[in-house]
Amino acid sequence: DEVFGDNNCIAQIGFAKTTGSTAEAVAAIFDTLLWYAKDRDLVKIRKLYWPQTPGEEGAKEYKRVETAEGNLIPITKYIHNGKLEIPAGARILTTGSIVSKGGDDPDIQFPSSSGSIILSCKPNRHWKCGVEGVKKLWRVGRLLRQPGLRIYKRYFDDFPFRPLTNIWGDTRGEDDATYVVQTDTKPVERCILMATDPGDLVLDPTCGSGTTAYVAEQWGRRWITVDTSRVALALTRVRLMGARYAYYLLADSSDGQVKEAEISHSEPSQALTHGNIRQGFVYERARHIMQSGIVKNSEIDVIWENCEE
User: Could you tell me the pTM of the whole model?
Assistant: First the structure.
């Protein structure tokens, strides 16, 4: 804080290391990363997302399965010998609220086989998507057919990822370390991906085993690494010369344009390519379905009108 200012502290990250250090009291199994910026208003932050699994951290609320017939079954019914087996056409889900604080919206009534269902918005609450938005969610089957406010169906495959937080418990050190204080590649990789873009320059003033240079090379970042030890530099040189990396497609390449069109379901760009790494790579995509996105989908209204006719 004294060097950069407390306003320029971006994050404090705890990450797991190989083994607990010898201590008289409590063994330390976590190290801490401090992320500071010279100017917080100008800092570059790239959010990272991690695949999640139903029932595990970040996805424990997904406890039910909706069958193809529309029945809701506890997810435990589909766990056999510790393995989750979902039948074809079924989807894992949890429920979300359809209201937010503030305002005072009217009640909404829907027809039902057993009469009618009235959704009552409590005092000092308003419908997240407005009255018409709630009606659209009802028409497309995104709401449970029951009274209440936490009835929005949020399916697991709407967005099966979770944002990376400031606690990293999966970063144990490397088993094949060649340097006494060699850092696992995972925490360094995440730091580089969060704070830089392809073509950016990464500086490591304490080279050690060369993990920073190794990771930066993999992800298309330029790098400078420094050390006073000849042994450290020699190990780094050997590590880099023998490194084998996955092959990535540049966005600014003809193959990249074709792949980008394939992923985005569009026509390939006809722009000239120059192999500029600063334009990044061709990345995987993940859909993210939200209440607001469903409500704004005008095709739903057209389909509904055609069905009514």
Answer: 0.83
